[in-house]
TrEMBL record:
Coiled coil: none annotated. PANTHER family: DELTA-AMINOLEVULINIC ACID DEHYDRATASE. The active site is at K194 (schiff-base intermediate with substrate), K247 (schiff-base intermediate with substrate). Its EC number is 4.2.1.24. This is Delta-aminolevulinic acid dehydratase. It catalyses: 2 5-aminolevulinate = porphobilinogen + 2 H2O + H(+). The keyword Zinc applies. 5-aminolevulinate 2 binds at S273, Y312. One of its GO terms (biological process) is protoporphyrinogen IX biosynthetic process. Mg(2+) binds at E232. Catalyzes an early step in the biosynthesis of tetrapyrroles. Binds two molecules of 5-aminolevulinate per subunit, each at a distinct site, and catalyzes their condensation to form porphobilinogen. 5-aminolevulinate 1 binds at R204, R216.
Length: 325
């Protein structure tokens, strides 16, 4: 029987594969997460995330040079304050650790895109993402504080604010607050689809943000649900989000594809700490080729529809891409 089509012809050599390939990963797609802490002379590796560190502002200033040289153009900031209280006041303190990190970054590298994660969990004594009363996380009273945090970070130089709390209505409240204060050009990257995932474990160590009681299932999404994700994304679009996000990434590529196909806004996905730690641990044990597995995983995220990826591997990927060029 004569074979009329031979798809293998398009895979015959590396040069041909490179010529016809469909999906590219670019340095400009990458967003690098950093953890900034109070104090001086601090550069401490996070035990569950080898290669990722806590930085005080003086050591972070040195790390900024590495980021700038790498070609990575976007950084998302997470703060670990010394002081925590019931209302998460450090999140909206104009002299908070993230606010100071934003001002430092913009003074040295004004072209770097600065993204401020907006949540209360790192700043509250109870570790929840909102105000708590009688063991319940309060939605509407929390919105005011989240918007205060977003405005404080915008004033400090954030190009993008990224609310990760999963309170209902926070995008609209934040948009009105920013616009009313003259920050109508500050973008909102909404953590629209954020599942209550077990993949966040190492991050909670890094950010010292584990809840002191209960869990976050009453506000983060049930990972068994798909239609609920579409509702959440649609609400964020209606309320004025500029960028949508699906978090985590690898276990939710179906949702990356679904949200990318259904909505016209740019889509980000967050390759979270658990994903990083699993790949890093396997690589350190010699069980996988780290570069190959990471690049395959990130390309899968792009292929599913992500325009941008938050990844702890950002600097490594940037280096690998340059080496391959």
């Amino acid at each position: 029987m004569e074979i009329l089509r031979r798809p293998r012809r398009l895979r015959a050599t590396k040069a041909i594969r490179d010529l016809v390939h469909e999906t590219d990963l670019h340095v400009s797609d990458l967003i690098y997460p950093v953890f900034v802490v109070e104090g001086e002379h601090i550069k401490e590796e996070i035990p569950s995330m080898p290669g990722i560190f806590h930085y005080s502002l003086d050591t972070f200033q040195e790390h900024l040079k590495e980021i700038a040289v790498s070609g990575v153009k976007s950084v998302i900031f997470f703060g670990v304050p010394d002081h925590k209280d019931e209302v998460g006041s450090g999140a909206y303190d104009d002299e908070g650790i993230v606010q100071r990190a934003l001002r430092l970054t913009k003074s040295l590298y004004p072209e770097l895109i600065c993204i401020a994660d907006i949540c209360l969990c790192e700043y509250t004594s109870h570790g929840h993402c909102g105000l708590v009363k009688d063991g319940c996380v309060l939605n509407d009273p929390t919105l005011e504080l989240l918007s205060k945090a977003a405005l404080s970070c915008a004033r400090a130089g954030a190009d993008i604010v990224a609310p990760s709390d999963m309170m209902d209505g926070r995008i609209g409240h934040m948009r009105r607050t920013l616009d009313g204060a003259g920050f109508e050009n500050t973008l909102i990257m909404a953590y629209s689809i954020k599942y209550a995932s077990a993949f966040y474990g190492p991050f909670r160590e890094a950010a010292d943000s584990a809840p002191a009681f209960g869990d976050r299932r009453s506000y983060q999404m049930d990972w068994r649900n798909k239609k609920e994700a579409i509702v959440e994304a649609a609400l964020d679009v209606e309320e004025g989000a500029d960028i949508l996000m699906v978090k985590p990434a690898l276990a939710y590529l179906d949702m990356v594809k679904t949200i990318s196909d259904r909505f016209d806004l740019p889509l980000c996905t967050y390759s979270v700490s658990g994903e990083y730690s699993m790949m890093k641990a396997a690589a350190l044990n010699g069980w996988i080729n780290e570069k190959s597995v990471v690049m395959e995983s990130m390309t899968a995220m792009k292929r599913a529809g992500a325009k941008m990826i938050i990844t702890y591997y950002a600097l490594d990927i940037a280096r690998w891409l340059i080496e391959e060029a």
